[in-house]
Model the fold of this input.
Amino acid sequence: MSRPRLRPLLQALIASASAMAVQAPAMAQTPMNQAKVAPGGMAQGPTYADLADLALPADLVARAQVRKAAALKPEQSPGLASGKVRLYIEARTTAVLAGPDLGESIRFLADVPLDSRGKAPRLSKADVLVIGHTVAGRPGELLLSAPDAMLAYSSAAEQRLRAILTEKLSADAPPAVRGVREAMHVAGNLAGEGETQVFLATDGGRPAALSIVRRPGQPPSWGASFSEIVDQAARPPAPETLAWYRLACFLPSSLPDRANISDSPADRQAAAEDYALVTQDLGACARSRR
Done:
């Protein structure tokens, strides 16, 4: 692959992508139960959480076919992860899943793993999914939402992305969860009866809560509410939904002591156990991206 000269267009793309690459580690959030990263970053393919991490902050998701790809020099690739190469890519838009009309020709920078020979992979005519933002005043120029936000196309990844985008744009989409605000357990009148309510901190202060109910002779049940009313009839979110992602990937692994405002030591213990039940049922937030 030939290396492009440092033209004004390329300079602008490099400046934008370099800033994102440097900021990416500081922007990363710690999930509740993040799986270990697979060698090579995306070698195992993107998980639901990987796709949600990339797509939720983006204003553009598109399918495209690579026309040209050229490796940048090391000095043009600050913040580049080991085992990767930064490419200048020109591609043809084939479908827009979300966002504005792009036109046929697009340009962007992307970080991709080196091949088995330590060389930049050959991507000409490859079908890809690109996730990011348009650049004001520069038609056809894209800034990916992360350096690795160009993905190999697959129908499964496209379907997952479409589902994420549909929920994202829904009027009742669950808000981003930032932690636990407070939790309280209240014992019932019978032995083994009680309820724990957990109120969550969210972007914009929008309502979000968990309710865990215990009744004698029955297994405990829990649900999540994203409205002003904490409903005992609420159910756990289904896996690979936006509500599941908000909880499984961003709740702390255990109930913070400062948030547990239950009255007695026994109630505080019950609240902690009920919260642990929720995190266990949600399961791990598996990610394969670095």
User: Anything to note?
Assistant: The CA atoms of residues 186 and 195 lie 6 Å apart. Confidence is low (pLDDT under 50) at residues 1-6, 19-43. The first strand starts at residue 60 and ends at 71. The helical segments are 8-27, 48-55, 155-168, 242-248, 265-282.
